[in-house]
Every structure is written in C-alpha cells, then in structure tokens.
Amino acid sequence: MKASDYLVEYLAARGVTHVFEVVGGMITHIVDSFCRAGRPKLISVHHEQAAAFAAEGFARMTGIPGVALATSGPGATNLLTGIGSCYFDSVPAVFITGQVNRSEQRGNRAIRQLGFQETDIVSMARPITKAALRVTSAEDLPRLLAEAFATALSGRPGPVLLDIPMDIQRLNVEGDPRNPAGLDRSECRADQSDVDAVLAAISTAERPLILAGGGIRSAQVSEQFRAFVDRVQCPVVNSLMAVDVLPYDHPLRVGMIGSYGNRWGNLAIGRSDLLVVIGSRLDVRQTGSETGAFTAGREIYHIDCEPGEMNNRVRGCHATKSHLRPFLEDVLRGGPSYDATQISGWLSEIEALRHEWLDTKELAGGAGINPNDLMHQLSRMSGRASAYVADVGQHQMWAGQSLELSAGQRFLTSGGMGAMGFGLPAAIGAAFSDPSRPVVLIAGDGGFQLNLQELQTVRRNDMPVKMVILNNRCLGMVRQFQQSYFNERYQSTYWGYSAPDFCRVAEAYGIPGRKINAPEDVDAGLAAMWADPLAPFLAEVTIDTFANAYPKIAFGLPITEMEPHATPREMEGT
User: Fold this and answer.
1) Is 240 contained in some domain?
2) Could you tell me which residues come within 8 angstroms of residue 365 by beta carbon, excluding any fewer than 6 positions away?
3) Alpha carbons 436 and 448: distance in angstroms, whole number
C-alpha cells in the first residue's frame, strides 16, 4: 500500500473523523490520499496555527487525538503555538508535517538549508511535545504511527509530531492499517494507604475543600469525579481549566479560584483547613505568588500522575502519585459515604461569602454592559450549546467567573500557553465533534483578530458557531496591567490599537451579525443569535474600555487579598 494511503487508513481506524490542514507541496501525496479515501474528512483552514487549535478543540471534546497536517517550512513552524498549547494543557494530538525529499536534506553539511523550505521541525518541536519523530524509511512508518498515537494517549496526554519526507509518502509499506495494535493505557495506581489517608482527612476536617483542575478532563474522568464528590459531600473549587467539571447548579460547586477567581472562592481557600488537589498543578495563576500563605493553616493532599508537579512551587503537600482514573476507582470502590450535615456550618459560611461578594457586583456602577451580567444572560439563552470556547483576555476571566454551565456542557480555553487567537479555530474543532449542536465562542476584539480569517471556514462549512465578541476597543488585560504598573501609559493596547466593525466583517464573509451596545439590547441581541440554532452568527457586544477584570489577586499578597480592595505589593512577573 502507498505510504500516504496507509497513513489515511490508519487515522480512520483510530477513530479520527476530521483532520485540519493548509495544503502545501510537501503534503500533496497525503492530501490526495485523503481525497481518494473520502475519510477522515479533510478540513481546509486558512492558517496552520488555526489547524492546530482546531485539532485541539476536537480532541478536547472527544478524547480522540486531534490531527493537524502542514507542509514543510513555514507550514510546520506555524503549527508550533498550537502544539505548545496541547502540551501545556495535556491534550492528545498528532501533528503530521511533510518534509522535503531525503535527497534534498542538508544532513551533516555545513550549510543552513539544501531543499526549498527544508526546516528541522523535529528539533524545534521536541521541547513542547511528548515525542517528535522523524520518519527516515517507509518501513518505519507503521511503527512510528502506532508509537505516535500510543504516546499521545498514554500517561499524561499530550502532542506528538511526526515528520514525513515527501519521497517516503509515495513509497509502498507493508501491513494492514485497518487493524492497528491496541494502545498501552497502563496507569499508575496509588497505594491503598494513600487513598485511605485522603478519605480520612476529608472525614475529620471541619472546613474541607476539593480543588478540581484540568487534569480531570484530560484523564476523561469527569463522571467518576462527580460520583466521588457526591460520595464525600465535600465542596469543590475549580481552576480556570476545570470550569466544566461540575454543573453550575451542583450543590457542592463553589466557584473558580486563582488570579481572577471568584472572590468567595479564594476566601473559602483562605478559611479551609483541608485542600484535596485533584488534577491541578498549583501554578501561580491558581495560588498567587505567596505560596506560604496558600499552605498556612491547612493540610494539602495532592494527587497527580507526575511526581514533578507535586511539592514543586507549593511545598509540604501530602503527595500521592496516581493517575486519576484508578485513584477515583479505588475511592468509589471502598470509600464510605459522608453526611453533608457534619459540615453544614462550613457550607453555610461559603454561601454567605458568595452572597457578600457577588460576581456581578465587582464592577457595579461601571458604564454600559456589565460583563459578568452578560455571561449569566448568555448562559440562560444558550442551553442548546455543547460547549463554550473562550479566547484569551479579560473576557476569558469574566467567562470563568460567571458562565452557568449545565451538565454535559464543556468549557474550552487556552490555559498554560494562554494564546490569543485560540478561540475561533478551537470552536471550529469543537463544532466538528458534534455538528448537531452549536458552540458558543466568547472572544475579545484583540484575540479575535488574530485568526479572523477562519470566518471563511465557518461560512464554507455552515458551522453552528455562535460568536460573541466583547469589544472594549483595546487589549484589555494588558491595558489593565499598564493601569496598575505603568502610570496609565497605554501604548499598543489603547494608543496605537484599533479594531474593525466586526458585524460588517462577518457580513463580508456571509455571516449575519448584530451589535449589542447597551444593557437593554442584550436580551434581544442574544435572541437574534439563537433564532436559527444551527446557523453561524456574530454578536458584537460593546464593553467599556476601562472595565477591569476584577477581582484579581493583589500580587505579592495572599490569595485572599484581591484588587480593587487590596493594592499589589510588587509588580507581577507572570
């Protein structure tokens, strides 16, 4: 079988239904094989970065490795931001790049380049992949394909790059790609004594909390996690990457914590005597810079599959090395059930904090549309949506603080990479995972412009992507940073920055749009967006330029001290 045909058949056998790409000379054999096979479906986008983000969105919705395809040189290098996003957020993906013919590679010659667009993408990608593999012979292709998928899915998930020279793509290979060998999904398991210690700590604590992180979704154990929470009756705070692990109306859901977390969530951590960390790496965006204050007064049990993530920044934790699936299985198999009445006073205290520090009051009195109110209104109108996808910026934080996700709805955003431009292509990938349900994109005017060209992909495929653009006519998160630390010199965020009329841009692509300029316009504007649930739509929402994302941890102070009521002690470095 021709190598490129083998590749296509192998992807189909692995359950890959969509592959995202921008065509180029060094992948024409592969593209032609997709064309002749008819499956998986090839989705042409307009920038390789968008292809990578779309693959990530698809993978995060399905658990199947996302696949993106690019040609050599600039095509391959344009994938790198999306590859890094998958690596930092533990998303399984296989990125396939074409390479120049082996006879055109410089090898050990003391030159920069031999073949046109020859680029050593393997060396570039290696630091941000679980493996970067170079195919050097046709005989190696079946083995390396299997290795790529096994590596992407095993252990802590992540991306793998596979670089295939063009001359190898047209050679013949042996084997049957339709019957791939099973993947090794072996997982490390905690000692039972460690599991018992966690349960005992929860049962004796007066003010326990569970901190849920994005690893719960990466490990595909959200259902088991919810069963665990219901069993132990312990309130749950979540990181930005775990907004969707419990539905908004779950009685034990507290809210988001961290740099821009719900104020009551951060205060709850400050008052807790036990924190059980599941699937979170406790980075500075979650704990604040003062890790001593984060640990003071409470025991912390940290469950993670990577030892290096535990007792890293936050020291003194009870570290339990385990993948989450076996850990939760062991908890649910033998763990006792708890009565929430034993911590009823603690639950009442958290609820009182929530009412005292409502998210919608953080910007009370501000001009125009309140972004937190908008998120609640959007949620109430978007029950049909399968997912919310947030780009990166202030809107991302308002979404994390205030969206009301129902059971089964997902929340996707770029966490570790924090890549502006993630939103639109990731929403496209998410929408292809289930075309029968719409996806809601929440983006800022700045981030949306980074991959705005993918409006054509939305239109060409008539995708049910509902785009909500919060337009504050600036790059708001950095503008807020300049307000705090640079005496309101708004260079390149407000001064020297501009954005187009997004509704007119959408119209140019054949997508209907509507402006929402005032609070009284919101309900009608969102109703227009949902008039046809399966049609694309763009809503441009005017937000005050100087609306800040509050609350925000005052850098250099404990997690409980948040702006605007506290002043940063030092300039934040992250």
Assistant:
1) yes
2) none
3) 24
Residues 257 and 223 in one domain: yes
Look at strands 562-563 and 552-553 and give their pairing.
Answer: antiparallel
Q: Which residues pair with 513 in a beta bridge?
A: 538
For residue 41, the SS3 value is: strand
**Residues 6 or more apart whose Cβ sits within 8 Å of residue 524:** none
How far is the CA of 16 from the CAs of 142, 223, 480, in angstroms? 16, 23, 42
How many residues does the structure list for the chain? 574
Residues 6+ apart with CB under 8 A from 297: 273
The CA distance from 113 to 106, in Å, is 6
CA 175 – CA 73 distance, rounded (Å)? 30
From 105, 131, 107, 132, select the one nearest 116 (Cα to Cα). Answer: 105
Looking at the structure, do residues 144 and 37 belong to the same domain, yes or no?
yes
Residue 335's pLDDT is 65
pLDDT digits (tens, 9 = 90+) for 183-231: 666 788 988 999 999 999 999 999 999 999 999 999 999 999 999 999 9
**Low-confidence spans in the chain with pLDDT less than 70:** 180-185, 335-336, 573-574
* Strand-pair partners of 42: 19
Q: How far apart are CA 93 and CA 112, in angstroms?
A: 30
CA distances from 205 to 15, 78, 208, 320 (A): 45, 50, 6, 19
Q: Cα–Cα distances in Å, from 283 out to 240, 259, 279, 478?
A: 11, 10, 12, 20
**Given this model, what pLDDT does residue 573 score?**
66
- Please list, in sequence order, all residues whose beta carbon lies within 8 angstroms of the beta carbon of residue 176, skipping any fewer than 6 positions away: none
Asked if residues 363 and 550 have their Cβ atoms less than 8 Å apart, the reply is yes
Question: Cα(269)–Cα(237) distance, rounded to whole angstroms?
Answer: 8
**pLDDT recorded at residue 574:** 61
Instruction: Answer with the one of 104, 137, 169 that is the final residue of a domain.
Output: 169
Q: CA 258, CA 113: separation in Å to the nearest integer?
A: 46
Strands (E), 187-325: 208-212, 236-238, 253-256, 274-278, 299-304, 318-321
In this structure, the strands spanning 236-238 and 465-471 are: unpaired
What's the token pair of residue 137? Answer: 């012979």
Same domain, 292 and 379: no
Name the amino acid, one letter, at 268.
A
